Task: inverse folding
């Protein structure tokens, strides 16, 4: 199968690189940035075990926010990626706060965004588990 052979991942990477090239040529292009972030997010969801895909999504969103600080799509994907990174890496308390700020901003603008609501719940769950671990509960 295509997915099992790694070819799908490679092909998706090529498509993503095309979008990255567009962004290098025109970094303030909001429509292109949204397409790249959406594509990168769906690619990371297909292969959630690859933390580097979540890192790429986080970095792409972070870069786009330099050019368009009010880009809610970039904040959404930066927050979602950060939650997945926090779940796998020890990023510290500030990473939690940053992800929470991004996700709450997005949820305020779109209260029906279920993925963002679930990500916020994951942050709370992770914080509870960390507190229990620290307190030997």
Result:
């Amino acid at each position: 199968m295509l997915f099992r052979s790694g070819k799908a991942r490679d092909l998706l990477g090529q498509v993503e690189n095309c979008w990255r090239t567009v962004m290098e040529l025109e970094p303030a292009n909001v429509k292109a940035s949204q397409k790249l972030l959406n594509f990168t997010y769906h690619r990371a969801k297909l292969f959630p075990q690859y933390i580097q895909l979540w890192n790429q999504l986080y970095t792409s969103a972070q870069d786009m926010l330099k050019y368009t600080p009010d880009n809610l799509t970039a904040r959404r994907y930066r927050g979602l990626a950060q939650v997945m990174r926090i779940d796998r890496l020890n990023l510290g308390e500030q990473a939690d706060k940053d992800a929470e700020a991004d996700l709450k901003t997005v949820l305020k603008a779109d209260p029906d965004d279920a993925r963002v609501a679930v990500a916020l719940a994951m942050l709370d769950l992770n914080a509870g588990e960390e507190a229990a671990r620290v307190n030997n509960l």
